[in-house]
Design a protein that fits this description.
- By secondary structure, the chain is α+β, with helices and mostly antiparallel strands.
- The chain has helices at residues 16-26, 32-42, 51-63, 90-112; strands spanning 30-31, 67-73, 83-88.
- A 3-stranded antiparallel sheet has the order 1-3-2.
- Helix 1 (16-26) crosses helix 2 and helix 1 crosses helix 4.
- The mean pLDDT is 91.
Length: 122
């Protein structure tokens, strides 16, 4: 029996770190360290995740059904342990999309008030 999930909008707004995690995982599977490094790179080091905070956030996203474990893989580097990889779920993609739309509406409202320049839509 499959569990019925609530609509994506019920999880909004996402915490900024959760949005970043889903955004990075949208591009493909990553292990925890790779996820943290990708977020640092994407944010210009403005957002850094310590391991305990990172895995607490990953567990939360997994419990909400937004992310799932993609399995363990061996690492080529000598002495490195096997890494757990994570991927965004279809439900996670729909929540990410809903949050991106919500943020777009906020940016549009700020632009209408001339707080920021208007951007061209893609």
């Amino acid at each position: 029996m499959t569990r019925r999930r609530p609509g994506p909008e019920t999880l909004l707004p996402l915490k900024p770190v959760e949005f970043e995690m889903l955004l990075v995982l949208h591009d493909g599977e990553l292990h925890g360290y790779g996820l943290a490094k990708a977020i640092e790179a994407r944010t210009g080091n403005r957002m850094r995740l310590e391991p305990a905070n990172l895995y607490r956030r990953v567990r939360r996203l997994v419990s909400l059904g937004l992310v799932e474990e993609a399995g363990h893989r061996g690492v080529v580097e000598a002495g490195a342990e096997r890494r757990r990889y994570f991927r965004i779920t279809e439900y996670g993609r729909s929540v990410l999309s809903a949050e991106a739309q919500r943020l777009r509406e906020l940016v549009d409202a700020a632009a209408e008030r001339k707080l920021i320049p208007r951007t061209r839509r893609a």
